[in-house]
Design a protein that fits this description.
Keywords: Carbohydrate metabolism, Hydrolase, Metal-binding
Number of helices: 10
CATH architecture of the largest domain: Alpha-Beta Barrel
Distance between the termini: 20 Å
Number of domains: 2
Family: Belongs to the metallo-dependent hydrolases superfamily. NagA family.
CATH class of the largest domain: Alpha Beta
Shape: globular
GO molecular function: metal ion binding; N-acetylglucosamine-6-phosphate deacetylase activity
Oligomer: single chain
């Protein structure tokens, strides 16, 4: 199959191109002003042809929290996520008793799979329970603890290589040992829900931490006395910065600040909860009630933000609306997360990569998925 698009997001820029797919992979790319659009089986004149979107932080969707998902829930969610152009995810579970998390990993580690007909699960993201009480956000206070070697080892053992990201506050007692153990087992350490100083964040980077969980949210802010988590994240090129662009968690000026300071390191995430793709109402996040009102982010009963309901394609659209260039905004949901996680077979439209693709097109001034392909198979048509 050959797809022509007037705007293909390539590593070299946004160009007209014909992308040829065979046996689930990209086998050739003809790009530039003289490309022969008539040679294609499908012509796309509007919007953008992009690599499939990758979400490093998603708690649930379509009425189900991943921490409570059964087999049919997993299948339903993974078959629906291509509707937003998402072709790979790192399902996220948040703070709970360590034993509950150990049991969850034992029950769900088999869900880590790559498919040819639905969104891939590339591993899990554990956000907590080793967080700052001061910066816990919507996490359950009674379950927030400092890391112990025993707890870290039990989680790693239960996950059996399915644990790929862990959010941790590096200023906690024994966090240094925890970060070393996680890095040694191939887990990407993300600094988040943290009241750390800039020096403590830098030290976490020295130990091998490479990610920042939802930049600006639930972390020590920039000040003239100490740049905190947010400031160190912006200036320290070792870190990839997760960013929720629903324009509720982070205002547009701060989104632009992040892109101006760290353009190639901003990674769009949804932090979506079970209310993603659902009407306003009452939902759950880690077993506790969350309220969603139309046009507003989810909140706990005390008004604390509790995840989002933003689609990843709509997050890209929000970035473009406030002035981020389309190529950079799209890369923040494709190339950047793939690079951050060491994925060599996806995230960019390049010869040899998986043919996980999405046509992002405008509908009522919102850029969103029009068609999605996984391993060359068309799995969604709007």
């Amino acid at each position: 199959m050959r797809i022509y698009a007037a705007n293909v997001v390539l590593p070299s820029g946004v160009l007209p191109a014909v992308v040829e797919i065979s046996d689930g992979k990209i086998v050739s790319i003809d790009s530039g002003a003289g490309v022969d659009a008539n040679s294609a089986d499908l012509r796309i004149e509007t919007g953008y042809l992009s690599a499939g979107l990758i979400d490093l932080q998603i708690n649930g969707a379509y009425g189900t929290d991943f921490i409570a998902a059964n087999t049919s829930d997993w299948e339903r969610i993974l078959r629906k996520l291509p509707e937003s152009g998402v072709t790979a995810i790192y399902p996220t579970v948040i703070t709970a008793p360590v034993l509950d998390l150990v049991n969850w990993f034992k029950s769900n580690r088999s869900q880590v799979k790559t498919y040819s007909d639905r969104t891939a699960v590339l591993g899990f993201h554990l956000e907590g329970p080793f967080l700052s009480m001061k910066r816990k956000g919507a996490h359950r206070a009674e379950c927030v603890i400092a890391p112990t070697d025993e707890a870290i080892e039990s989680l790693i053992s239960a996950a059996q290589d399915s644990l790929k990201i862990m959010t941790i506050a590096p200023e906690l007692e024994n966090a240094t040992s925890a970060i070393k153990k996680l890095v040694a087992h191939g887990v990407k350490v993300s600094v988040g829900h943290s009241d750390a100083t800039a020096d403590q964040v830098a030290s976490a980077g020295d130990l091998g931490a490479t990610l920042i969980t939802h930049l600006f949210n639930a972390q020590s802010p920039v000040s003239h006395r100490d740049t905190g988590v947010a400031g160190q994240a912006l200036i320290d090129e070792r870190f990839t910065l997760g960013l929720i662009v629903d324009l509720h968690h982070v205002v547009s000026q701060s989104v632009l600040l992040a892109f101006k300071a760290a353009q190639s390191r901003v990674c769009l995430v949804t932090d979506a909860i079970s209310a993603l793709g659902m009407p306003a109402g009452e939902y759950e996040l880690a077993g506790e009630s969350v309220t969603v009102k139309a046009g507003q982010p989810p909140v706990r009963s005390d008004g604390t933000l509790a995840g989002s309901t933003i689609r990843l394609d709509h997050a890209i659209s929000n970035c473009i609306k406030i002035g981020v260039s389309p190529g950079i905004a799209i890369a923040a949901a494709t190339k950047v997360p793939a690079s951050a996680m060491g994925l060599s077979d996806r995230g960019t439209i390049e010869i040899g990569n998986r043919a996980d693709l999405v046509w992002l097109n405008y509908s009522n001034e919102v850029l969103e998925a029009e068609r999605t392909w996984i391993a060359g198979n068309e799995v969604f048509v709007k």
